[in-house]
Amino acid sequence: MKKKHKDKKVKSKKSKKSKRNKKNKKTKIMTTFNWNCRTVDVHPQQEGETDVVYNVHWIVVGTSDQLDPENNPYSASNIGTQIVTLNPESTFIPFEDLTNEIVVEWTQATMGAEQVTAIETNIQSQIDLLITPTSVTMHIE
User: Fold this and answer.
1) Whole domain around residue 41: which residue ranges?
2) Which among 91, 83, 88, 89 has a CA at the least distance from the CA of 109?
3) Each residue of 74-125: pLDDT tens digit?
4) Structural domain tally of the chain?
5) 18: exposed, middle or buried (C-beta count within 10 Å: 0-12, 13-18, 19+)?
6) Model confidence over 50-81: pLDDT tens digits?
7) 3-state secondary structure of 47
8) Domain annotation covers residue 119
9) Does the residue 105 lie in any domain?
């Protein structure tokens, strides 16, 4: 009989713990990151090709699923440039056939996953501070 009593205690502890986890669970902020790599610098002629992209001007905008008091999503952005090189082993894509998706892929591949993550993490931190500020500016009358 004592054994059954111990089993009941274990079950009781588990159910209390799961209830606590449900109470303490915060709603996770979902942020969508939009990479714009449509502005580029090109060499008019390079290695027999024309309009060869060598520098990408990128803008990353993060948009939160949480809304501000005016019912607009919280957002933040980061901008920069990334040098890209012509890869002689890849098929050359003429400028008129380039899309934002292709250039985003080049840019992120050149940056590497660690830098891409750092950029998006920085934007998320900006959004988090907008949602839950750690400091505010006030004016004394």
Assistant:
1) 31-131
2) 83
3) 999 999 999 999 988 999 999 999 999 999 999 999 999 999 999 999 999 9
4) 1
5) exposed
6) 999 999 999 999 999 999 999 999 999 999 99
7) coil
8) yes
9) yes
